Amino acid sequence: MTIERRSFADKPTLAKELAEAVADRIRTAIAERGAAAIAVSGGSTPGKFFQALGKTRDIEWDKVIVTLVDERWVDETSDRSNALLVNEKMLQGPAATARFFPLYSGGDEPTNEAIAKTNALMAELPQPFAAVILGMGNDGHTASFFPGGDTLNAALTEAGPTLAIRAPGAGEPRITFTLPRLLETDGLYLHIEGDQKASVLDAALGDGPVENMPIRAVLRSGAPVTVYWCP
Ligand SMILES: O=C(O)[C@H](O)[C@@H](O)[C@H](O)[C@H](O)COP(=O)(O)O
Predict the structure, then answer these.
(1) Which residues cross the membrane (predicted)?
(2) Rounded to an integer, what distance in angstroms lies between the CA atom of residue 231 and that of residue 9?
(3) Who is most buried in 44, 168, 210, 222, counting CB within 10 A?
(4) pLDDT tens, 63-90?
(5) Could you tell me the distance, in angstroms and rounded to a whole number, from the CA of residue 177 to the centre of ligand 1?
(6) Which domain holds residue 166?
(7) Of all protein residues, whose CA lies closest to atom 13 belonging to ligand 1?
């Protein structure tokens, strides 16, 4: 089985343990390749994890690049911006010297030109990622692989590294790393909290089409995934 499910007593314990696991990945990548890139998720779940990781002192943060697995197409003044969240929660204190590569590259819409600009920046990332940390929505989306997404198939199969996606459940237009690019990682983590998300994960691990619950594309990819869960 490539899915390992780890359960923790509460949110602070999970945040600390996940931060330690990701910190180890970062240190190893720096030792082996001289630099480390991580891709993190936005949303309401990862705040405590960001704070725990950002406070970690024994990381050469100036050799770290932080980016996002996906972003809402809004600038950093919006409270919907995942970049804002990362900046406020993680890139403070010891982690303030890390570099941040934003997915949002300006304007009201993720046009082809805007995506090309982001892709040019992302081509500078050290490869593979040291760690990719995914979240999951109750509709079975992960990153911005939403059910009904207009470019879902491309997002799950193409090299990318990023593309635009619009979906009924997504709010504003999104940009997401593609699945093939996210799977180029030393460590792949799924961070979910609460009983409802545990049930959604159980359902996703069962039979059924990927289009209904796109997280299945990750779970069925064969890549080792470590699930971090707490009530
Ligand atoms: O930008 C985003 O919305 C995320 O990256 C997204 O994929 C998130 O991980 C899930 O929607 C879970 O979100 P919550 O943590 O808010 O439940």
Answers:
(1) none
(2) 7
(3) 210
(4) 999 999 999 999 999 999 999 999 999 9
(5) 14
(6) 3-230
(7) 43
